[in-house]
Amino acid sequence: RGGLAERLCRLQNRERSAISFWRHQCLSNDKIPSDKSGVLIVRILEIFEECTIQVAICQQLEQSPATLSPEDAVINAEEPILKVLFTRETAAHLKSRPQDVIHIYPPWQKLLLQNAGVPVIMNTYFSQKVLRSEHSEAREKTYGLTKMLIRKNIISLAQTFRLDDVDDKLHQESSDNQVPCAPQTHNNGDSKQHPSAVSAVNDSLLEMVESQGAVGWREVQVQVVIQRVYCLPAREGHRSHTQGNKPLLSNGGMSCRLCLLVQDAYGMFSEVQLQSLSSTDDVEQYCRRWEGKSCCLAGMKILQRTTRGRALGLFSLIDSLWPPVVPVKVPGQSQDSEMMTTNLPPPSFCYILTVQSGEIHVEVDEEEQISNLYQPPAVHGLKEILRTDGCNKRCSFWAQVLYLRLQTKHSVPIDQREMLLFVTDSTLQNVVHGIPKVVAVSVTASCVLSMEIMEALSAGSQLVFFKDALWGNGRIICVERTVLLLQKPLLCSAAGADLSELTGPVRLDELDSTTQASSICALRGTVVGVNESTAFSWPTCNRCGNAKLEVCPQDRELLYCNQCSEVVTTPVLKMQLEVFLSCPSRSQSTVKVKVWHEIRATLFVLLTMLLFLQTYEVQSVLGKEVGLLNCYVHSITSHPNCVVLEEIVLL
After folding, report:
1. 237 C-beta neighbours (distance < 10 Å), count
2. Is 200-233+255-326+346-375 a domain of CATH 2.40.50.140?
3. What distances in angstroms separate CA 159 from CA 168, 170, 171, 207, 333, one per listed residue?
4. Of the listed ranges 4-8, 193-197, 300-304, 597-601, the one predicted with least confidence
5. Which of 176, 346, 457, 466 has a Cα at 20 to 30 A from 571?
6. What is the dotted CATH code of the domain comprising 4-25+37-62+78-129?
7. Contacts for 236-244 with beta carbons within 8 Å, 24 or more apart?
8. % the chain with pLDDT above 90
């Protein structure tokens, strides 16, 4: 507070307020201000744009009477030609054209440059276009319907700093760098018919932003390398929860946007948000086709300039790709063999780009070799990741999914709930002690999952490649820009990690004093009690798992499933029982386990078992030894000292 930046901000705010107030007064009075002292009157001869500033070559006019029309004004031959600078905002307000007469009010300033015969007029915020004759007004109405073509001079940084690189000189010819500004109004057919209209190619994202401005560029291309391809959810995206053998989560109704994280030759990153995808399954093919390839961007506009503090997730991904693996160019320095690779400060800001409708957007040369600037995901074993220090670091690994569970927080909508994937790999299964054999990976609602992934997980245990997950505070989280694939990418660096597949049966950690809530473990003990009040059983459909079966209208001795619209002849009997165990590993705790059982039987056997359960003696199960049960840990409390678990079936 109180620094130069804050003082400058206040000054700019006061300046904008003064300009807005002055323009409002001019519109209210509907006339040119009467005070003509110090007013500079110029006629525009030529207009072009350079570094986002509109430059007008003008001739100064004599101080004319108020009744004199601009067409009758006398040109003063003794006055030199003036070069008048207008900011983007002032130029948009004036909408000037050649032969227009402009009144520039104080405090304008004249700058005399050495070795230049044309004075430069600056600080032209208080400017007004003069329209006096009927001819001028008619011309203004006619021209107002069309967008004038304005020449833009693209000035490269190498040319500004007079660098001597031969390769740069080849791209600095003025004939190549001067391109006409395309009109704003054109149809999609025109842009598709003339892809060669985009001519100039640059290698600096920052230079394009500075020279073309926030409204976007259409006339030039910038060449970048695609580092990552992923999807971001759209606002209307949602997930649905279904029962039975159908996918637990479905992205069929999710609307998501294909995005690219690109990097230019100077090491600068940008996130490019492309079109919406109808199917999230397309992400994997785009990853395989585009990642690591060079591409040219055109028809982009700036959606946002974001910083590290505003987009921690984006910058955690950028940090995983920093520093560059090959030397990058340094603005303002000679581009020779001394280009820097180490001690480079990580990027502090990033531009979010999006496409403009009806333009040539991304041109990827899929036949081209992988760029040297590309950094494939570094794959590590889970044991190595768990031993990594730090917070909010991206990691990639290949793991077997053993169990998935949707978080059941009733206060949170289903489409915003997290999902837990319990995974393991050979590096964890071979550990004797100290590191868990199974790790929980939290998948947030912002992580876009393809239908292929969800259907595969619903069918059974799968090997899944987790690309760019987030590791920190002892948790692995799949967030925005994390991609889950069933196939390992063609390019990835293993960094000496043990990525061998599991050969034997999967082992879980047994329940002990180190077990935490929301984890899975193996349990053994002795039954010491049964909660009879919570014991119940119910028949379900053997096809879809529907638990709401009805009596068949045609035959009341049969059951009927509304979801399948068929008679259920061999229902599945599900039984739930809460038992209390005595466990040697937690001798001081009360261990309560919710046990599930499924029995497939005919309807006759089912009715017989239901009658049997009504007269079932609890004493017959007390003292029974329980073998290794796979359980999910719901909660662990110290007052009272209690562990609540639920029996689960691994995928």
Report:
1. 20
2. yes
3. 8, 11, 10, 12, 11
4. 193-197
5. 457
6. 2.40.50
7. 237/415, 237/448, 238/415, 239/414, 239/415, 239/445, 240/414, 240/415, 241/406, 241/414, 243/544, 243/545, 243/546, 243/547, 244/541, 244/544, 244/545, 244/546, 244/563
8. 25
Tell me the two tokens of residue 241: 């929860």
Burial class (CB within 10 angstroms; exposed 0-12, middle 13-18, buried 19+) of 504: exposed
Distance CA 34, CA 26 (A): 10
Q: Is 383 left (phi over 0), alpha (psi -120 to 50) or beta?
A: alpha
**What is the tens place of the pLDDT at every residue in 40-86?**
999 999 998 888 889 999 998 876 544 445 454 455 566 668 999 99
Residue corresponding to tokens 């063609």: 490
Rounded Cα–Cα distance for residues 366 and 291 (Å): 9
For the record, the structure tokens of 232 come out as: 């971001």
Phi/psi region, residue 115 (left: phi>0; alpha: psi -120 to 50; beta: rest), is: left
DSSP H stretches of helix in 569-630: 603-614
Q: How far apart are CA 74 and CA 79, in angstroms?
A: 12
pLDDT tens digits along 401-423: 999 998 766 666 656 678 999 99
Domain range 382-485, its CATH number among 3.40.1190.20, 2.40.50.140, 3.40.1550.10, 3.40.30.10: 2.40.50.140
Q: What is the pLDDT of residues 624-644, one digit of tens each?
A: 888 788 999 999 998 888 999
Q: Do domains 382-485 and 519-647 have the same CATH topology?
A: yes
What element of type H or E holds 270?
strand 269-277
